[in-house]
Amino acid sequence: MAQSLSRSPLAPAAFPDLPVIKGVRFASAAAGVKYQGRTDVMLAQMDPGTTVAGVFTKSATRSAPVRDCQDKLGAESQVGTAILVNSGNSNAFTGHFGQTSVAEITEAVAVATGLPASRVFTASTGVIGEPLPHDRITAKINCLVDDLNEVGIKDAAEAIMTTDTFAKGASAQIQVDGQTVSIAGIAKGSGMIAPDMATMLVYIFTDAKLADSDLQLLLAKLCNRSFNCITVDSDTSTSDSLMLCATGASGVDVKGNNDFAVALESVMLDLAHQVVRDGEGATKFVEIQVTGAVSDAEAKVHGLSIANSPLVKTAIAGEDPNWGRVVMAVGKSGAMADRDLLSISFGDVLVAEKGWVSPDYREEDAAELMKRDEIILKVDLGLGDGKATVWTCDLTHGYIEINADYRS
């Protein structure tokens, strides 16, 4: 499926040049889990002393790899760490077979790398409900270990794609006391994207030094301002995983460093936006700005109600400035709203104010704006100081085509 899809019209021009992160090496291979003629397994190995943080799907039907990763967070870090990811099969809803597959893969990686199985994390993405042919993966592990290198992150990003139409990467570098600290991340995600922790698979690496507990707190905080603010189709995956690994190779302790937090958030936002830009069948990238809510939390509820509305998303796909659908989405959200205080804008075009169509509104102005690839939709509730921004894409017939054929 992945190699047959046309590249998203919203995709960046090329995969970015990512800095080498000292203390982490990558390798990828074609194991034939589902896809033929493309890489579908990646391995990342981190040096001893690497700390690891993670957030995972809250789905009640989360996969065996997710459960295993959750159990392993916080284990001894002095011996090093490895992450193995496969695409093509999610190893979800596979009962005891799923647990067996995780155990076989982690043990094989542990033996090949000399790491304890407690420091081997795995993830799987793809079709749900089919046993993972883990023997195809374990057969490649020795080759993966032999091929580990510092510059293989782009190949790793390509190996974890499913219905993605482009590999996703982002980076940032800052100076701390005259020393360079680097951050680089990769992600996969295109469909089954809705915020309930991280939504998709994301792996971020830094050579900064930060304790496990501090890394975890920072990741959870920034996730709520990035990955938990995107949606493609309102569906939360069984396999969502976001992991952040700090090798400490730079020797720079970034605890409490605001510049590092800002840089990390920029990488997370970049990757989150790329997922939306690669939304299945997407032709428009949509930013929804909600202001005037009674709280930031309620503003986010309104924003996601708009972003997840099939009626709003299809109107955007059809380039129709149908503001009545935005009114509907606000009204159904469950958060506080007052019809007579509501204002709506498409970009800089004020469509409605104080619960009624603006007297200066011209339909042709908004219709022209809707032809753009990137659209900003603004809603002010007139109730308080709460605000939030969320990101989504339009809903086209391409989404149906991709998902109707997904298992074939």
Describe the 3D structure.
One of its GO terms (molecular function) is L-glutamate N-acetyltransferase activity, acting on acetyl-L-ornithine as donor. Belongs to the ArgJ family. It catalyses: L-glutamate + acetyl-CoA = N-acetyl-L-glutamate + CoA + H(+); N(2)-acetyl-L-ornithine + L-glutamate = N-acetyl-L-glutamate + L-ornithine. Helix 8 (296-307) packs across helix 10 (323-332). The protein is 30% helix and 25% strand. The strands form three sheets. A six-stranded mixed β-sheet has the order 13-12-11-14-10-15. Strand 12 and strand 13 (356-357) form a beta hairpin. With 408 residues, it is an alpha+beta fold. It is globular. The N and C termini lie close together (8 Å).
Q: Can you tag this structure with a few keywords?
A:
408 residues; alpha+beta; six-stranded mixed sheet; five-stranded mixed sheet; 15 strands; acyltransferase; transferase; L-glutamate N-acetyltransferase activity, acting on acetyl-L-ornithine as donor; Arginine biosynthesis bifunctional protein ArgJ; ArgJ-like_dom_sf
Stretches with pLDDT under 50, minimum 5 residues: none
- Listing every helix as H and every strand as E from the N terminus to the C terminus, the arrangement reads EEEHEHEHHHEEEHEHEHHHEEEHEEH
Straight-line N-to-C gap: 8 Å
Structural classification? alpha+beta
Instruction: Tell me the helix content.
Output: 25-40%
Task: Give the strand order of the largest sheet, numbering strands 1, 2, ... along the chain.
Answer: 13-12-11-14-10-15
How many DSSP helices? 12
Give the overall shape, derived from the CA principal axes.
globular
Enzyme class: transferase
Pathway: Amino-acid biosynthesis; L-arginine biosynthesis; L-ornithine and N-acetyl-L-glutamate from L-glutamate and N(2)-acetyl-L-ornithine (cyclic): step 1/1; Amino-acid biosynthesis; L-arginine biosynthesis; N(2)-acetyl-L-ornithine from L-glutamate: step 1/4
Keywords: Acyltransferase, Amino-acid biosynthesis, Arginine biosynthesis, Autocatalytic cleavage, Cytoplasm, Multifunctional enzyme, Transferase
Main location: cytoplasm
